[in-house]
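Appendix B, example 12.
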Amino acid sequence: MRILGGKFKGKNLFGSQDLSVRPLTNRIKKSIFDVLQNCFQEKSVLDLFSGTGSFGLEALSRGAVHLTVVEKSDNSLAVLRKNLHLLPLGGEKVYTIKSDVIKFCAQTVQVYDLILMDPPFIFPEIQNLVDLIFKRKILKEKGVMVVHHEITNPVADSSDDYMIRQQKKFGRSLVSYIMNRE
């Protein structure tokens, strides 16, 4: 597992020894960041279900200036902190929060330009979480939320609050790019 682009390109990251942690593959991560291109410059990013942090750290490497990572596992947070120490951070601000993501999203007052979400494949609350994020307006008006999820655990194509702009299939998973309804 490594950072694929930006100022930390090529930096190898620590992985988790916990077999229940399913890291985002480099192939899927590359595809996501190719679609998003340069939308990170000077942006704030929220990485939900951050695990070892590779998703959010990729955004940080590509120009994000504020990264909030939310993870409830002590083991994953320990690996994430090791990964943070590998990087020569400059003016970027990184906040690690130990919390259940639904609880965090129900309480946060922050808003973000980009929300990255890679929940466990068996996460029956995915639709409730997406709805909560848009009802609470955690994503900025012109922001993007990227959700990596299993095909059998889909997100509704649209609601009064959001719409899926694009989806891409990778084996048994989907990557959904979701934006506020205009």
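The CA atoms of residues 22 and 120 lie 7 Å apart. The chain has one domain: 6-13+24-180.
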